[in-house]
Write the structure tokens for this entry.
Amino acid sequence: MTLAEQAATLLERMGARMGHGDLACVSPIDGSTLGCVAQASTAQVKEAAAAAHCAFLAWRSVPAPRRGELVRLLGEELRAHKDDLGQLVSLEVGKVLSEGLGEVQEMIDICDFAVGLSRQLHGLTISSERPEHRMMEQWHPLGVVGIVTAFNFPVAVWAWNAALALVCGNALVWKPSEKAPLCALAVQALFERAVARFGGAPDGLSKLVIGAREGGEALVDNPGVALVSATGSVAMGRAVGPRVAARFGRSVLELGGNNAAIVAPSADLDLALRGVAFAAMGTAGQRCTTLRRLFVHDGVYDPFAARLKAAYASVTIGDPLEPGTLVGPLIDEGAFAAMQRALSDARDLGGIVHGGERVARAGVYVRPALVEMSEQVGPVLDETFAPILYVMRYTDLDSAVALNNTVAQGLSSAIFTTDLREAELFVAAGGSDCGIANVNIGTSGAEIGGAFGGEKETGGGRESGSDSWRAYMRRATNTINYGRTLPLAQGVSFEL
Ligand code: NAD
């Protein structure tokens, strides 16, 4: 079977159809075209947002635990089609199969989380300074949530947003990456199946609009979209943030990272090697949390760097659907060009490059690159969305933490150490400035139970677990007077 035939079969099993249109869906596995899909016009995006708004007006009054039932059914559909959707992720964006399946598992996990959450959307009660008064906070549904997603997590990021937003009483419009529309069609079809089994959900509760940047812009500028949750590059966030703010809309921005890890002298080097290798080479370096900078203590640098070089030289690169492959393709030629530019800049600055060369086969395959640098300069300061790990020496932990924090982004970070003091220092207020700071775990592969996101140019948004749900609701403060007098706050007098 060709890849196109495989994609068509998977879509059919999930109840989706490709249709016809002018957006070509290209598989990075071999560069072949999987099919073509139709793109939504700006007018159609507007119609989708209007339909979602009508749905919101009904959905917000459905009791939250009942809303949770729809998300539970969605989780069931995802469980039933985990293999199909996981394979489609591999076909469309080139993830190795276990990562494609892992992404669907993440969707299932957030559905489970959101079902429980649907019975816990709680507010505070607060003591009033006035007698016979009570203050409380309520969290109400917000409105239409516009979800703009990146190519590298073509299904999980939608689920992080959608599962929470739905139990919170909102309606959705999803603009997926133009590089992964088939995954979006499949997810939409599974959602429709859940809606059919649920019975009685309003029409238009979750709309899909396929297209490129213009589709995202139409959501960003639409005053009927209460919250824009946008995942992608810093450049995208720089455009989206001010435009949503200009109309006083809300945004959750989940942008690029330039993540670092420290290997301390006391580190368990076997564990550190696996942690570093997965974080830096996994997903062919195409995760927002990919490890891009490594600071290794001078005392362990030589043996650790030698083992790392051996791992880089021997890692299995190839078809992501083949068992045993650890590194699949880059998404496209643009990613390869950006990688080669960064490597060339690093060489010009004295970097010693190991690997990074193209692997001869259809598609865009590269050997991950390890670059020994004497300083954190030039391309080391940027996120290049490809498998490049810059390795540097350090001698004292304070300076390594300062280097961790020097870059413009603040998503993920890690330290490998068995020294309790070093570990605690790294996660303390004066340690890593990132949204994620790990100990003896790499920078990537977060669980859904925690809030996910980062600081500085990573955008400041939080999605997924903990209390991230609050971003999808509006807070109302209610003061209730159950007495027969009207005392004013702060002792103000106003006698008629
Ligand atoms: P991208 O910025 O090119 O595109 C992301 C999405 O934004 C796409 O759907 C695109 O069509 C849309 N878009 C682009 N410009 C827009 C604009 N001006 N207005 C509205 N929408 C716009 O990113 P990509 O190449 O698909 O993904 C890779 C990037 O995403 C990396 O920088 C990576 O770090 C980041 N990322 C971040 C997270 C996170 O949670 N922090 C997760 C995944 C990916």
In short: The chain is about 40% helix and 20% strand. The radius of gyration is 24 Å. The longest strand covers residues 133-141.
